[in-house]
């Protein structure tokens, strides 16, 4: 890897980052125990899967999160944010994943990171709104479901007063909870980045049906949505997303590491108490070895994650490669841990009443989000040897 820029010791994870992580763990332990999570997200399978109701969440808890300043962590101080290190934000998001927190926090952090990457004055008013607690989500994916920047189905046409948007944006995360949408649209030969309020005339939001019960997802339909010039952040949307991509991959990887850690620790505790043949099942090698393999997989993913986040902080040219490595490892670890946690819980692991399914489904969603392990390794191969046979 390119060593032109120095990476700080311990990934730059210092006292402030540790304090933020510990505060997040304590706050979420108190305010989002698994019993409350189950009551919000998974009280009954029928309403969610048969009637299409949105998963539950706690808006009052979101207000507390806003008071703690978490939505503004990625926002520059000049726009009212904390300008916190990305490695510290990754530590926070691990705790969010460990508690499977239903909230627009991750979507808002992603949106603020993209707006920050725009590096334009027009982005500052929106960044200030996010820092003060306005929730937002990214709308940048076309119908093909490409997980790389540039696949869009939203067209922008010039009008006497500004721009008009038509088309659709797919796989928008936590759309039902968000007030603003950061939209990628094609305008002639350019890809523009703009911000649309939820209440914009001509914007229709249609909920998707997904397995994850801790968040929602939607398709946004733009039917003559009018934009003024102040809503257009930049006409270099593709370059912005390419700059932001390593950070987005890091956040998803951090959430994956958090959900995997919860599944591992819960399964270890179960193996200590569940008895078979007059011994705790954790006594048997057939249980011990998969748990150790899961631990190794999570630790490997976490190490790659914090390395990638430190490169993002340093503005290192290898940040994207490192972030793809982290996402690959985190996706693989999430798949392995989810499989083994269900298996080692035996028959009860397959029931709705067992909390494992909440984390299993969140992990599945994150594994696919922005590309699973196979996709990331394919892209890494493109970096190293160039596209082959494609």
Architecture overview:
The protein is of the alpha+beta class and 390 residues long. The chain has 3 domains: 9-135, Acyl-CoA dehydrogenase/oxidase, N-terminal domain (Butyryl-Coa Dehydrogenase, subunit A, domain 1); 138-235, Beta Barrel (Butyryl-CoA Dehydrogenase, subunit A, domain 2), CATH 2.40.110.10; 238-385, Butyryl-CoA Dehydrogenase, subunit A, domain 3 (Up-down Bundle). 50% of the residues lie in helices and 16% in strands. Helix 5 (86-98) packs across helix 8 and helix 10 runs antiparallel to helix 12.
SSE arrangement:
Layout: H1 15-31, H2 34-41, H3 45-51, H4 59-68, H5 86-98, H6 105-118, H7 124-131, E1 136-139, E2 153-159, E3 162-173, E4 180-187, E5 190-197, E6 203-207, E7 217-227, E8 232-234, H8 237-273, E9 275-276, E10 279-280, H9 285-314, H10 319-344, H11 356-368, H12 373-385
Helix pairs in contact: 1-5, 5-8, 6-7, 6-8, 8-9, 8-10, 8-11, 9-10, 10-11, 10-12
Question: How many β strands by DSSP?
Answer: 10
Sequence stretches where pLDDT stays below 50 over 5 or more residues:
none
- Rounded to an integer in angstroms, the radius of gyration calculated over CA atoms is 21 Å
- SS content category: alpha+beta
Q: Which sheet architecture does the biggest sheet show?
A: 4 strands, mixed
Q: Can you give keywords for this protein?
A:
390 residues, alpha+beta, Butyryl-Coa Dehydrogenase, subunit A, domain 1, Butyryl-CoA Dehydrogenase, subunit A, domain 2, Butyryl-CoA Dehydrogenase, subunit A, domain 3, 12 helices, 16% strand, globular
